[in-house]
Specification:
mainly alpha; globular; 171 residues
Length: 171
């Protein structure tokens, strides 16, 4: 929860319009940031990696699920805030010079958007787990193959993703 409190403070410091919708304290569990931060690729700045992955994940939640940081029924504000948090996380990642991680997170964001558009958003929880692992530990050939299956809409993609992320990923 400490990372979510840090993220809340960053958003609050940016001010309106997003800050006015912040919850008094974050609600819900931390997301995939800790996994990304625990890998050798993030060893130079694990706190930074955890924060930026959580910012991007929160952006995803604002677009497709329930925010841990904001309390708003205003869909336009949620989308604006989600875009800002995507950008905030990616800005911090670019500042670290980690082009591979930028590519992985951008790929994951676009894949989740594609899956939601197809009505297959239930795979995104596992995709976030796999993407965070790729950020922290490097992408495997198996993960690249799963992303390719998901991208083209192959029904085997969801099963391959589930097999790749068992037993550690959320359902």
């Amino acid at each position: 929860m400490v990372t979510l409190e840090r993220l809340r403070a960053v958003v609050e410091a940016e001010g309106e319009p997003i800050a006015s919708a912040l919850r008094a304290s974050p609600e819900g569990p931390s997301g995939p940031g800790r996994l990304a931060a625990s890998g050798p690729r993030a060893a130079g700045d694990p706190d930074g990696y955890e924060l930026l992955v959580e910012a991007i994940y929160e952006g995803y939640l604002l677009h497709y699920a329930r925010s841990r940081l904001l309390a708003t029924d205003d869909r336009n504000l949620a989308l604006l805030a989600g875009d800002r948090l995507y950008a905030l996380g990616l800005e911090r990642l670019v500042a670290l010079g980690d082009v591979e991680a930028v590519r992985e997170l951008a790929d994951m964001i676009s894949l989740c958007a594609l899956l939601h558009a197809r009505g297959q958003g239930e795979s995104c929880g596992r995709l976030w787990f796999a993407g965070a692992r790729a950020v922290g530990f490097g992408a495997s050939a198996e993960y690249a193959a799963v992303k390719a299956l998901l991208r083209v809409g192959d029904p085997a993609g969801a099963a391959a993703l589930a097999a790749l992320t068992e037993p550690h990923a959320p359902p």
